[in-house]
Amino acid sequence: MTAALQQRVRPLLHGGSHSLANLAVGAAAVAVAVRYFAVLFVNAPGYGGVPVSPGLATGVSTAVVAAAAIAVAVTDADPLTGIGLLFVGVFGLLSLLSSAAALPAAAAVVLGTATIAAVAGRRLDLVSATAVALLVAALSIGLASGVGGWTGLRPAASTVALLGIASTPSFAATDWRSLSTADWGAILGGLAAFAVVLSVGRAVPFVTGAVTLTGTGVVGTSLPVIALAAAGAVTTASAASRTRRWPLLAGVALVAFAGVPASLPRALPFALGIAVLTAQEGAQ
């Protein structure tokens, strides 16, 4: 079905399938970032009732991400990857229509993302494959702790998700074995981010805890793990910006701003981010 849909859609795009997919992913990343900052803003001390609705921002971002997943699905060259992304996108939209679809949607998102990871595993090196495994595990444990109701798994989901985000520089490296090809500017940026988060977290632990809880849904995770995730995200984003690899930047933004994927509005961008990151690494 996906292959037939791709054959019908691609001729209409006249060679612009990659542009459409990149545009859709970029729009999804922006939507998730807006939701992230909207939630932080509303929960900030001294909030004066400025008309910012986190619920509306979450609903809009979820719809945009689901639509982006469908757009990438119909333009992807691999039918199995397309099927996985269709699972993510279609069931993501269904979850917006009815709360009864939450559990089936969670299962579909995990299944779809696992399919994408399995396809990508054929072309990834060991380091990148380990990063993908961490991210998919975080998605599975996160949804089990949230939508599945196994709340005791939430600290584990938070830790695994942050470690997965910390591992994203593996997708940016052209050759992780060679120090001569390392992007030292990006690495130094990541080290600076680690130091800043660690220092701020120790100086104002309650503020740091509030920001990580409301913004990314982190529960029961140590400060060094949070700092490590920040370092990984900054390193990847810096490397992507310096080399103008905008889909890679969108991919890391999706997983970083999504945070712990314990709910469908967080799980959908996390899943799309995994798909984008694996595609970028595989394209090197």
Automatic annotation (TrEMBL):
InterPro entries listed in its UniProt record: DUF8068 (IPR058381)
Keyword Transcription in record: no
Keyword terms, alphabetized: Membrane, Transmembrane, Transmembrane helix
Pfam families the record matches: DUF8068
Domain DUF8068: 24-278
Transmembrane segments: 20-42, 54-74, 86-119, 126-147, 184-204, 210-234, 246-264
Leader peptide range in chain numbering: none
Superkingdom classification of source: Archaea
Protein name: ABC-type phosphate transport system permease
